[in-house]
């Protein structure tokens, strides 16, 4: 049972859609123009302004970086118009390169949890494994081989390994895992960027993705965990450290806990969670922003862990009354 009233829970979920819509509308003006920093900056500015209308007392715990690295939506920034104390995880434009090049799967993302319920993840890598709902607990394991995980997943789904689709980022560090997955018979869907959409896709029946595996950004891992919680999927993760400084930073952000421990889903996103994403460019998860003579259409996904409900929302924005950010 959420600590905040159920009506507030529902209203907040819909308010989050307006936040991700605002960021998507702003960044869409830069789609295909080869200027990823401008696209990201537009998304950040629009998302920050939209938060001023949301009835929360929010603290950014996953954001654009530290205060000296990001002018807005920095870690520790206070946002919202006042209300329940909430932690906020944001990626104003997940897939800046995808937006700049007009490639699939650029999205804007926000997640909310009660204070203290998100993993405070530094901007380092995280190993991740994700599957959808309706499967035996522990059907896959981060420490098992990819062959074992595919075999166990296929058995749980009453399918052959050859029927499974594994999704991962196309990176040199994944080359061996990809080769072993293909040798086992699985098909592999490669992403150039944007692993949040890839992880969430495992929880959507019509996405064609059965499992997501690989290392990507730790902040994106927390956002993925929020969505997977809402969808009743399964996920494990582990922070990857390149040096002692990164390990010490992770330990400082989560005192009293082993920074190198294997993380379960509730270690990354606990308690009642709300999640929203809006498409910027069309991909497997969401349709991108579409322009028409007198309106702009957005496509969003909003999810609540307390109910397990996922809603796809298509919004038609009237160009005659919509206030657009400067280009």
Q: How is this structure best described in words?
A:
30% of the residues lie in helices and 26% in strands. The chain is of the alpha+beta class and 327 residues long. It has 2 domains: 157 residues, 2-Layer Sandwich (Fructose-1,6-Bisphosphatase, Chain A, domain 1), CATH 3.30.540; 144 residues, D-Maltodextrin-Binding Protein, domain 2 (3-Layer(aba) Sandwich). Strands 1, 2, 3, 4, 10, 11, 12 and 13 form an 8-stranded mixed beta sheet that branches. The chain has a 5-stranded mixed beta sheet with strand order 7-6-8-5-9, sandwiched between helices. Strand 12 and strand 13 form a beta hairpin. The longest helix has 23 residues. The relative contact order is 0.17. The N terminus is likely disordered.
Spell out the blueprint of helices and strands:
Layout lengths: L5 H23 L7 H16 L5 E6 L15 E2 L5 E10 L1 H5 L6 E8 L10 E7 L14 H11 L8 E5 L5 H10 L2 E5 L3 H7 L9 E7 H13 L3 E7 L3 H10 L11 H4 L4 E7 L10 E2 L3 E10 L4 E10 L9
Parallel strand pairs: 1-3, 6-7, 6-8
Antiparallel strand pairs: 1-2, 3-4, 4-10, 5-8, 5-9, 10-12, 11-12, 12-13
Helix pairs in contact: 1-2, 6-7
């Amino acid at each position: 049972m959420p600590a905040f009233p159920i009506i507030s829970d529902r209203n907040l979920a819909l308010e989050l859609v307006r936040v991700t819509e605002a960021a998507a509308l702003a960044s869409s003006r830069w789609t295909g123009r080869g200027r990823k920093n401008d696209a990201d900056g537009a998304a950040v500015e629009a998302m920050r302004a939209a938060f001023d209308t949301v009835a929360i007392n929010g603290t950014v715990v996953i954001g654009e970086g530290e205060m000296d690295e990001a002018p807005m939506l920095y870690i520790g920034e206070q946002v919202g118009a006042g209300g329940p104390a909430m932690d906020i995880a944001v990626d104003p434009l997940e897939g800046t390169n995808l937006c700049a090049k007009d490639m699939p799967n650029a999205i804007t993302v926000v997640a909310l949890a009660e204070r203290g319920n998100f993993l405070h993840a530094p901007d380092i890598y995280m190993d991740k494994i994700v599957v959808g709902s309706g499967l035996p607990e522990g059907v896959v394991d981060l420490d098992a081989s990819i062959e074992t995980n595919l075999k166990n997943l296929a058995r749980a789904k009453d399918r052959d390994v050859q029927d499974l689709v594994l999704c991962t980022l196309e990176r040199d560090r994944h080359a061996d895992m990809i080769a072993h997955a293909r040798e086992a018979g699985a098909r592999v869907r490669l992403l150039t960027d944007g692993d949040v959409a890839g992880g969430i896709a495992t929880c959507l029946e019509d996405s064609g993705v059965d499992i997501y595996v690989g290392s990507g950004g730790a902040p994106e891992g927390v956002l993925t965990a929020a969505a997977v919680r809402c969808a009743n999927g399964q996920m494990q993760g582990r922070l990857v450290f390149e040096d002692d400084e990164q390990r010490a930073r992770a330990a400082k952000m989560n005192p009293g806990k082993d920074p190198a421990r294997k993380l379960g889903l509730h270690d990354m996103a606990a308690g009642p969670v709300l999640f929203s994403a809006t498409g910027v460019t069309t991909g497997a998860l969401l349709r991108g922003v579409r322009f028409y003579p007198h309106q702009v259409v957005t496509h969003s996904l909003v999810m609540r862990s307390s109910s397990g409900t996922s809603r796809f929302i298509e919004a038609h924005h009237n160009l005659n009354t919509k206030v657009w950010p400067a280009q």
